[in-house]
Each structure stands twice: as C-alpha cells, then as structure tokens.
Design brief:
The chain is an alpha/beta fold. It has helices at residues 4-8, 36-49, 59-78, 93-108, 127-136, 153-159, 182-191, 211-214, 239-244, 285-301, 303-321, 351-359, 373-378, 395-410; strands at residues 17-18, 21-22, 24-25, 87-90, 114-118, 139-143, 164-170, 195-199, 218-222, 233-237, 255-261, 266-271, 327-329, 341-346, 363-364, 366-368, 384-388. The protein binds ligand 7TS.
Length: 411
C-alpha cells in the first residue's frame, strides 16, 4: 500500500518548522529530500567500507568496488538497460548531456548537419549543443511546442530531415510537467537514421522508465532528484554506440594501458572496459551507494504507485488552484498528461514575490525561469512560480498551499 503519511516518517527534514509553520516542500523538481535509508547507506559506507575503487587488492577496496559495481547493476535494472556496461555514473544530467555532446557530437557532427532540440528543453539540453555548434558549424534547430506546453509532433516531423543527426528531447518538462511521447519521437528519429537523446531528469524519479521499450539511444538522469545525494547521476546509452564512442575525460580509471615507447617518445593508450572507459578519475563512490539505496527505496514503493500518487495530487491541486480568482495555471489541463509539476502566476505579483510570500508560511516553491527561458518566451511568460510534488506530499499540504495563495490574493 502506498501511504505518503508512512513515507513521511522516513524523511527527517519534513519534521522541520520554518517561520513557525510545518515545512511544506514543493520544490521537488529542483531536488528531492532524502530518506533515512539513503542517509544511513552513506553513513555506513564511510563508517565501514570507504576506500578507492578498482585500484587495490586490499579488503576495503574490494568491498567498495563491489558496492560501486552493484550500484551500476541496480541502476541498469531500474531503467531496464541490458547490463551495467550501458550505465555511466556522472555528476548528473548536465554532465551526461555534455558527455554525449563532446564525446559523440564532436566526432560525428559536421557543418552540414542539424541537431533538433525542442522549445521546452532545460538549458542543459540546449547549451552544450549550441557551444558545440559554434565549434563545428552545424545548426541547432528548435522544434515548436503547443500553447499548453505539450510537444507539437507535427512540428517535430516537419523539422526532421536527412540533415538531422540527433533529436535531443526531454521526457518530462521541468516547467509544465508535460510527459512527451518518447516512443513516437524515437520512431521518428530512427526512420530518418538519426539518434535520440532523452533528458530523463524529471521522468526517472517519477514514473516507470524502460529504455528498451522506449528505444532511446541516450537517456540521462540525476540522482539528487530521486532521493539520492547530489553529485551522482547516470548516462544510459546503447552498448553498440558506447563501443564506438571515444572517451570524454581522460585520466585514471578509464585507462587499460598507457604504453610509453622510449624510442618514439610517445604513448600508445588503450581504454578500459565499459562503463569505466567513460568514468575518468576517482568517481563519486559513496554517491553511487546512495543512488543504489534510493533506487531500492523507490522500487519498494513501485514506480507505478509513485506516478499514480503524483497524478492524484496534481489533479487535486489543479482543481483547487482554479478556485483562486487571480491564479493562472499553465500546462495541459489533463493531469494524466503531466507529472506533478505545476507552474502558475498570481495576477499583480512577480513569481519571486509569490515564492517569498509562501516561504512565510513554510511553503517552499521555486520561481523564475527554472533554466528554461526559451519555453517561457514561447508561452509569453515573464517568469513563473512552480510547485512540484513527490512521494511524501499530501492533499493536506495542498490545502495549506491554497489557503496561503488565497491570502496573497487578498493582500
Ligand atoms: N534537465 C531537466 C529537465 C531538469 O529539470 C534539470 C534540473 C536538468 C536537466 C539539470 O539537472 P542537473 O541535475 O544536472 O542540474 N532542473 C532543475 C529545476 O527545474 N530546478 O532546479 C533544477
């Protein structure tokens, strides 16, 4: 049974009071809170198993390496990848997209090529491509969205051509919560011999993800948005693509051999096996252990239940927000087409004013552009306030949020 009241007991931070009110944390799209089980896993790692990985023969290093590899295996299972060879641990979504841009894009994109991004992308899925476009001379083409923030599939199908080498698209918008039809986008990409990169930062934490069923080439996500610590995330890529890709960062761990030839005074370098070929330097070992504990926690709840809970909360919140005379809600009306993210504005107030006002009631929301300025421009929004939910949020918290918004309207 999915019980948010029981789940709350696992999150020490939710016991905090802020400005004399019980904390209501509605900024989950930015980062989630962490359960006791994840905090304990981190503590236990440092208290019992801490050592560097894949370097030493001693017991502690063996234990740390085993845990770190198991974390890759569990992450692979979580998104139904074929094996841990397809899972590269990185700092998060941003680093993962940069890896694809520099490692795959730098070598495969030419002046006459095009990269498609949508107008709803987070800056992390725009800026790496624009930076690379300046170096390589290819074009970044923006695919339009509909007025309710959903993807315009016709625009995507019209924009794609023989020149398109990759479609870079978010699974779920971090502003409107829109869930994109990735299977359809992947089919469109592959029919044109293009690859597809999916930014899963807002989907992996909230709904079941099956990379094989979606048939995506690259999938990226951040642990900190799904109960794990900051500084750990993953890039999934199909093995056949990773095998052909050159590394992004060079250094320890990603190397099999650096054979120095004293006559030629040059080194012949070979890369380590997958996935280590893409994990240069000492990795975030403890972060991996924390991510494994977070995945275990979510799997115990069941991702279908997580999604259903958020859908119920979103439906309820949208219904109640419509009671507020001065509030405008953006994004699709149908809660089943969106995750638990609701952008809104209150007439006469800036989004920062709304967020500050709610902070007085102990309610944490985000305000501004949420690193998605092109989307705000397209929807003609100066900025937006954003409430985003997770497994520990409740209807009662939404009621308090609505009461506070009604107070803003009166002020
Ligand atoms: N892509 C999407 C869709 C995101 O929502 C975010 C972070 C990122 C990429 C970048 O993730 P990172 O872990 O590498 O930073 N989104 C947000 C947000 O909406 N508010 O703060 C961070």
């Amino acid at each position: 049974m999915f019980d948010p009241y029981k789940i709350r007991e696992d999150f020490p931070i939710l016991k905090r009071e802020i400005n004399g009110h019980q904390l209501i944390y509605f900024d989950n799209a930015a980062t989630s809170q962490k359960p006791r089980q994840v905090i304990e896993a981190i503590k236990e790692f440092y208290e019992k198993h801490n050592a560097n990985v894949h370097r030493a023969v001693h017991t502690l290093s063996q234990e740390a390496s085993e845990l770190y590899e198991k974390a890759h295996e569990e992450t692979a299972k979580f998104i139904n990848a074929n094996s841990m060879e397809e899972i590269i641990f990185l700092r998060g979504t941003t680093e993962a997209i940069n890896l694809v841009a520099y490692s795959w894009g730098l070598r495969n994109l030419k002046r006459e090529d095009e990269v498609l991004v949508t107008l709803m992308e987070h800056h992390s899925n725009i800026v790496p491509w624009e930076i690379l476009a300046k170096i390589k001379g290819f074009k970044v083409k923006y695919v339009d969205i509909n007025d309710d923030g959903t993807l315009n599939h016709d625009a995507l199908e019209n924009a794609i051509s023989k020149k398109t080498k990759i479609i870079c698209i978010t699974h779920v918008s971090n502003v409107t919560g829109t869930i994109n039809d990735i299977k359809r986008a992947a089919k469109t990409a592959h029919e044109h011999n293009a690859l597809i990169l999916v930014d899963g930062a807002q989907s992996a934490p909230h709904l079941p993800v099956d990379v094989k069923d979606l048939d995506v080439d690259f999938f990226t996500f951040s642990g900190h948005k799904m109960l794990a610590p900051t500084g750990i995330g993953a890039l999934y890529a199909k093995r056949e693509i990773l095998v052909k890709m050159e590394p992004f960062h060079g250094g320890g761990e990603m190397i099999k051999e650096v054979a120095f030839n004293p006559i030629k005074r040059a080194s012949v370098i070979s890369w380590n096996e997958l996935p280590w070929k893409f994990e240069a330097g000492t990795p975030n070992i403890c972060g991996g252990v924390g991510l494994m504990a977070a995945i275990k926690y979510l799997e115990t709840l069941g991702m279908e239940n997580v999604e259903a809970h958020e859908c119920r909360l979103t439906e309820y919140a949208i219904k109640r927000l419509h009671e507020c005379r001065k509030v405008t809600v953006y994004g699709p009306e149908n809660a089943s087409k969106r995750c638990g993210i609701i952008p809104f504005n209150v007439e006469g107030f800036s989004s920062h004013d709304i967020a500050l006002f709610l902070d007085n009631y102990g309610i944490m929301i985000r305000s501004g552009f949420h690193c998605a300025q092109p989307l705000h421009q397209r929807l003609k929004l100066p900025s937006s306030a954003r409430a985003s939910f997770y497994i520990y949020n409740t209807k009662e918290e939404i009621d308090k949020f609505i009461e506070a918004l009604k107070e803003i309207e009166k002020s």
